[in-house]
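INFO  loader      accepted 1 record
INFO  loader      residues=237
INFO  predictor   begin
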Amino acid sequence: MKKKSIFLTTLFIIFVFFNTNLIAEINYKVDFSSRYIWRGFDLNPIKKPVIQPSIDYAFGGSGLFLNIWGSISFENKETNEIDLTLTYTFKTPENISISAGIIHYGMYFVEDFNIKDNTNHEIFVSAGLPNMRLNPSLSIFYDFTNGDGLYVLLKTEYSLKLSKAIGADLSASLGYNGGQWLAEGVDPGFSDLNFGIAIPFNIGKFNIFPFVNYTIVLLDAIGDENHLWFGVSVSYK
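INFO  predictor   done
INFO  writer      dumping tokens
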């Protein structure tokens, strides 16, 4: 599996770089969050906060993006995580936004770390309609290593004005777990229903996004408790 993931990543990079403008653009962001909820799972010690920094590296107008993302626990360093995502995005003549890429998940801080057991790899493809009012999108992820399964996410977003100076970004999504990280013999199904609101504003070159999210867990194999989580996202471009 490791050789397969290296091959896919290399092939993806070679394919895109033939048409790449190498003028880079870098964006920085850090989230301070009360929880680490991912696809309905609580991945941090239960109900404990995290810091989640990320760096986006865009290769000019080529459509190629590299993201480095981390999650830092206040409670247990073994849940700390570093992920790498390589994405290629383009638009069709019908204004459909298409993205495809590969994600490397790394749990590098566990005791007795080894590549085989403590890293995972996903390939994904997503399609969205950014010009539509609710900005709908459909994303499909497939973990071909330890997670060994499919996850599908249907998402919609909407921005509105609360006043001349303040707006609100609303989001809702529905996830379907096709066996990813589920115990053997557990039936797949709709796994998580998510609602979110963020209130964006600017301070100089900093973009500030206080947010509140609520996740309804729909699949017993993922958990038996819904999750309310909140925080603030700070980005700099």
